[in-house]
Amino acid sequence: MAYDAQIQIRQGSNRPVYGQIFAPSGGTVTIQSGGTFTLLDETGAIVTGFNAVPVSGWTPGAQTSPLIWYILNASTLNPDNLESCVYFGVFIFEGIGSDGIARNPFVVDIQIQVLALVEVLATYNENQLSGYPNSLIYQVRLYITDVDMTNPTFTDGEINFFVQSNNSNVLLAAAVALETTATNAAYLANTVKIGSFGSGADEVYDALMERAKRFRAIAIVVPTVNSPQEIFVPYQNWECPGTMHPW
């Protein structure tokens, strides 16, 4: 079936699924109450428990591109523990245009790829932020607010790579992690929270990139000086003038 957008979520996660509509140029749409969300499997059959359930929320008031969302609990999806499984989320709702005319229904289809549940090695302990050896990993997690270990964005191994590739500078490592989150669709979808920065992914992207820019600005970077292989000596034995040889 055709769909308007595509997202990825992990099995077992509890994440919002967004639908979005766009008003004609110069106009607005006000989403009305009563919207529903239905989940279909890849055969088109309705998933038990997800038949026209009420949506979780929507952007209030007259908007040029309002959002509607449902917080999807994916713990029961992909039960066969395959590598991934595809579902389709269907939003059906009414909107009133700036011309006062009700449009009913709006239908927005979202393809949802559920990634199989795998063991993710991710740890965080605020009592060991200054400890060893995981203190740098914990510090980066704190800076990027990836401290919910029920749904971590990065594994310890991934954050450790950011740390090591930035000479253990946690602010630079945090900046890279934020930039990675902002530019990766799966990571960004895992990070979007209702009300965190704004209405959806665009606002979260801007906020993450601005925070990364701030971290780079305040990070203290020790410059690396590479000495020449041959060192010029102005005097030898404090008597004979030195030479530029073998320069």
Q: Any idea what the CATH architecture of the largest domain is?
A: Sandwich
The N- to C-terminal Cα distance equals 71 Å
User: What is the CATH topology assignment of the largest domain?
Assistant: Immunoglobulin-like
- Let me know the average pLDDT: 81
Task: Report strand %.
Answer: 25-35%
Q: Helix/strand-derived class?
A: alpha+beta
Largest sheet: 7 strands, mixed
**For the record, what CATH class of the largest domain applies?**
Mainly Beta
Number of helices: 5
Quaternary structure annotation: single chain
* Helix proportion range: 10-25%
Gross geometry: globular
How many domain regions?
2
Low-confidence stretches at least 5 residues in length (pLDDT < 50)?
194-199
SSE order: EEEEEEEEEEHHHHHEE
Rg (C-alpha, Å): 26 Å
Summarize the structure in short.
This protein is 23% helix and 27% strand.
What does this structure look like?
By secondary structure, this protein is an alpha+beta fold. It has two domains: 5-115, Immunoglobulin-like (Sandwich), CATH 2.60.40; 126-218, no CATH class. The protein contains five helices and twelve strands. The strands form three sheets. Strands 1, 3, 4, 5, 7, 9 and 10 form a seven-stranded mixed β-sheet that branches. Strands 2-8-6 form a three-stranded antiparallel β-sheet, with no helix packed on it. α1 packs across α2 (156-164), α3 crosses α4 and α3 runs antiparallel to α5 (201-218). Residues 194-199 have low confidence and may be disordered.
